[in-house]
Design brief:
Radius of gyration of chain B: 11 Å
Mean pLDDT of chain A: 85
Low-confidence stretches of chain B: none
Structural class of chain B: mainly beta
Number of strands of chain A: 13
Distance between the termini of chain B: 6 Å
Largest interface: A-B, 43 and 34 residues
Largest sheet of chain A: 6 strands, mixed
Structural class of chain A: alpha/beta
Mean pLDDT of chain B: 91
Helix content of chain B: 10-25%
Number of helices of chain A: 31
Shape of chain A: elongated
Strand content of chain A: 5-15%
Radius of gyration of chain A: 29 Å
Strand content of chain B: 35-45%
Strand order of the largest sheet of chain A: 2-3-1-4-5-7
Low-confidence stretches of chain A: 33-42
Oligomer: heterodimer
Shape of chain B: globular
Order of helices and strands of chain B: EHEEEHE
Strand order of the largest sheet of chain B: 4-3-2-1-5
Number of helices of chain B: 2
Distance between the termini of chain A: 67 Å
């Protein structure tokens, strides 16, 4: 592909929060999340667009302040820049006009690595409002690159950028802006003659990086023990940064002019309240309250429509298809199963939409500021609040967003405890069980059911804190913990764009869960349709009663293990299938109850409510219900999350510890709860 | 209000991010807020009035001159 003249790969690079992802979206028109909180671009994303005769692939890399990585997401950037140099045509470097000084540091580092680059100054209007004027022509001359300007939020400058990319306006620096200091010159030269690496700065970066920055071993081979001992990478980095800033200061003094007075920006006014010692927390609490209120009350209307639609569809299928097992599978198994998930789409959508708006606006950084002190005693970092809050939607993106936590231990703890947060897949299960066991009464205007649900959210949060506290004692500390974080200016979120992204995510959830539920409905139906043979000639018996099926046999064989928790074999099957994904419970129960001819008529929840044991007791008693709720609150029932945990921790040990730790806790908690309450 | 004059970093424990973010010698700064119970500091610094959150532990590496 690279040799194809009509195909080109370019990289988008810059500090966090400079509008990089927004430019990426405008360039590529591809669905991708942008954010105003450091670290939203957790992995590199790529998108393509066509311009004139060429196809351009744009790779959006995580933001960073320097070529020397301090966290996992910054490491992605450095690796890509250095290792993949043969692949891409050049770097489009995005600079925010207001933080031009900070942005030029990484810019010059990339330039010195001999990488072709092009500069885009974004949000120049914001700087002008501050009375800062940047002479782009002079800047272009000082840096020796093409300089463009853009206003990503207003879609300005994008066509010009495409044009310059088409014209290959990337340029290499003629002369390095950073000279290798005299003390290290000899060493750099020695490595240069041995490895034939012609870029002196590249050799220097290998010497001064304490983490990964290319083939450090081959460099070390060229050094004698004394040289290795004397080399203090961190000191070299500090030296480089300070020298570069001296140089950048000179450049800025030549391109920047300032009016003496400027207006107070919105950010300054807002922060007087939003990070206030008292009001700040009150507002954060209020925002969370509004979000969860909306999740339950605003979502009620669309949820009723969806539920009615699926009831109608079930009835329609029952009437139109000939009676028989297929009819029952479709009308009572698959349709209600998928409907059971669809019903939760509005709740998931509303939750995600709020979270995206919060991230986009720049507010999340303030939440980190407010929460850091309170999360530290638990072995977490202020930055852990973002995965914890977004864990209420889904643990998978939440775990991926831990990549900007620099400290390895804090990151690991956050990854391990995030799945305790009440994710949206637990909602369907909670709603059904709470509907079954909690009476329809009100306590000063608030329904018992809503209170029960809130209690479940609280249990999730409380457990993740407690688990952190335990993990903090177990895990050995690696590296120092720190919080040095940019507080970006507030920005108006992209309401329409975020809405589109949320719709995509919700659709992903429905189709993903829908497929699994569909598959499981058929498998469960199949094993309940066949049973052990009743006469010699048959291989298996077909069309058996549910109680005589293989499924019942399998379910009953695990009964000794689950009976102490108050579950019958049907719940056992439901819980076992939930280890793939929690929401499968709803589909499994719908299928099971629809297959049972002896079960009473009505909707799934009515069937479950009126199901009785042989002795006349309710199957879904209060004790059993609480036991199920606790089991779902604690157990690690999500294959996708486990896969992400493994990918992020690169450790089978921690993945297994998480699976068995959480599920073991679930078993014990449910056991105790049932035995006390029954 | 204060001015950064240098760093106390003989044992190299200071995160480089402090310097990379632009908290450099000769930079003027102002501590605007602090989160309760000795939480992070909210600092405004430099000509661009950049804003940064920093824990007290990290701030101790920076030698400042009060104005």
């Amino acid at each position: 592909m690279q040799n194809d003249p009509s195909y080109k790969q370019i990289l988008l690079v810059g500090n966090p929060n400079v509008g990089k992802s927004t430019i990426f979206n405008l360039l590529c028109n591809k669905n991708q999340k942008t954010g105003n909180y450091a670290g939203v671009t957790v992995a590199s994303y790529s998108g393509t667009y066509d311009y004139q005769s060429e196809t351009v692939e744009v790779i959006d890399l995580p933001g960073s302040y320097s070529i020397y990585p301090t966290s996992e997401d910054e490491a992605i950037l450095s690796k890509f820049l250095i290792d993949e140099q043969q692949k891409y045509a050049g770097v489009v470097y995005i600079l925010e006009a207001l933080s031009i000084k900070r942005g030029l540091l990484l810019f010059q580092q990339i330039q010195d690595l001999g990488i072709p680059i092009l500069l885009v100054v974004n949000q120049i209007d914001q700087a002008e409002r501050r009375g800062v004027n940047i002479d782009l022509k002079a800047l272009s001359k000082e840096l020796g690159v093409t300089v463009l300007q853009s206003n990503a939020k207003k879609n300005e400058g994008i066509e010009e950028l495409r044009e310059e990319i088409f014209k290959n306006s990337f340029s290499r620096a003629e002369k390095a802006s950073f000279e290798v200091p005299l003390e290290q010159k000899g060493l750099v030269f020695k490595i240069f003659s041995a490895t034939k690496e012609s870029n002196q700065y590249k050799i220097w970066t290998l010497l001064s990086s304490d983490t990964y920055l290319g083939k450090l071993e081959t460099v070390k081979e060229q050094m004698n023990d004394d040289e290795v001992k004397c080399l203090v990478p961190k000191r070299l980095q500090t030296q480089e940064t300070i020298r570069r800033y001296q140089n950048i200061d000179k450049i800025i003094s030549r391109v920047l002019s300032k009016k003496p007075q400027f207006k107070e920006l919105l950010t300054e006014k807002l922060d007087k309240v939003l990070v206030h010692q008292f009001w700040g927390y009150l507002i954060f609490g209020a925002i969370l309250l509004v979000i969860f209120q909306s999740v339950f009350f605003l979502a009620e209307y669309p949820m009723n429509w969806i539920s009615d639609f699926f009831l109608w569809m079930s009835a329609f299928v029952t009437e139109q298809l000939p009676a028989g097992p297929l009819n029952s599978l479709l009308a009572n198994g698959i349709i209600p199963g998928i409907g059971g998930i669809m019903v939760f789409a509005p709740q998931i959508g509303i939750l995600l939409y709020f979270l995206y708006l919060l991230e986009d606006s720049g507010y999340m950084a303030r939440v980190i500021f407010l929460m850091d002190r309170f999360l530290r005693p638990f072995g977490l970092n202020g930055k852990s609040i973002v995965p914890l809050v977004s864990g209420t939607a889904c643990a998978i993106p939440a775990i991926m967003s831990t990549r900007n936590i620099e400290n390895v231990k804090e990151r690991l703890i956050t990854i391990l405890v995030t799945p305790f947060m009440t994710c949206s897949a637990r909602l369907p299960v909670y709603s059904i069980i709470i509907g079954l066991i909690i009476p329809n009464k009100f306590f000063i205007g608030i329904s018992y059911k809503a209170l029960a649900l809130m209690a479940m959210y609280f249990i999730g949060f409380f457990t993740s804190l407690m688990a952190s506290l335990i993990l903090k004692k177990i895990i050995k500390s690696k590296g120092t913990s720190f919080l040095v974080m940019d507080l970006p200016s507030y920005k108006l979120p992209l309401f329409g764009y975020d809405f589109k992204v949320v719709l995509g995510k919700v659709w992903e959830f429905i189709t993903g869960a829908g497929k699994i539920i569909f598959l499981f409905s058929i498998v469960i139906w199949f094993f309940s349709y066949i049973g052990p043979k009743q006469n010699e000639d048959d291989f298996v018996a077909t069309d058996v009663k549910l109680e005589q099926s293989y499924l019942a046999k399998m379910g009953k064989s695990i009964e000794p293990a689950i009976a102490p928790l108050g579950y019958d074999w049907k719940m056992g099957v439901g819980i076992l299938t939930s280890f793939v994904a929690r929401e499968v419970f709803v589909g499994t129960m719908s299928t099971l109850y629809s297959l049972d001819e002896e079960a009473p008529e009505g909707t799934i929840i009515e069937k479950m409510r009126s199901d009785v044991k042989p002795n006349g007791e309710k199957v879904y008693s209060f004790a059993t219900g609480i036991s199920i709720l606790l089991f779902y609150a604690f157990a690690m029932q999500c294959v996708s999350t486990l896969a992400v945990v493994y990918r992020e921790t690169k450790s089978w040990r921690w993945t297994v510890v998480q699976l068995f730790g959480m599920s073991g806790l679930a078993y014990i908690a449910s056991l105790i709860a049932y035995q006390i309450l029954k | 209000m204060g001015k950064i004059v240098g760093y106390e970093n003989d044992d190299l424990q200071m995160p480089n991010k402090i310097i990379e973010m632009g908290l450099l010698p000769e930079t003027f700064f102002k501590i605007l807020y602090q989160a309760p119970f000795k939480g992070p500091l909210y600092i405004e610094f430099g000509d661009e009035k950049s804003r940064i959150a920093l824990r007290e532990e990290e701030a101790r590496f920076i030698i400042v001159e009060s104005m």
